[in-house]
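TL;DR need structure tokens for one chain.
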Amino acid sequence: LHVADREIERALAHHLPLGARRLLDIGTGTGRLLEVLAPKVEYAVGVDQSREMLALARANLARAGIDNAEIRQGDMYALPFEADSFDVVTIHHVLHYADDPSAALAEAARVVKPGGKVMVLEFSKVTPLLAPIYDFYSFKVIPQVGQIVAQDADSYRYLAESIRMHPDAETLKGMMKAAGFGHVDVHRLTAGVVALHVGIKC
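>> reply
TL;DR here they are.
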């Protein structure tokens, strides 16, 4: 599903805490966020469960010349870090895959320092005016593209369905507050297709 990557990356960089030294990217995937944000901190680490994605992320970071970031295998429900270890944690398009998003948020809250930020970027609900167009694109166009490109329409249809089942922006804000973030701002991007939640740990 198309979102404006540069807009998202600019928003994440803009909300990065001033003076942040240590950054954790949960569900790092290809390592793209580390490429964007690692140059702005002293140390960054990305975790992912997939060995294939970890290998890809390492290759991408090496190609980009990023030398202050590392990649580790890890479970977002049991992160291999001590409490209060990071100034900022990012979770980028991961929660809609999670069986227990609240547990993942609680674990992010555990490892971020008091006063630190957790930035959650997730698909959200588009504006009512765009909803019919977005639904047609998501459930009709994208699966057909998936069938043509990857011979796998079902996986692309599942992605669209999982996004619809994900909590909306206000519900996710409440979940973050329940996880221990005393202040949570919501920034809707790309006409509401995605929302950036910025939570500050009490």
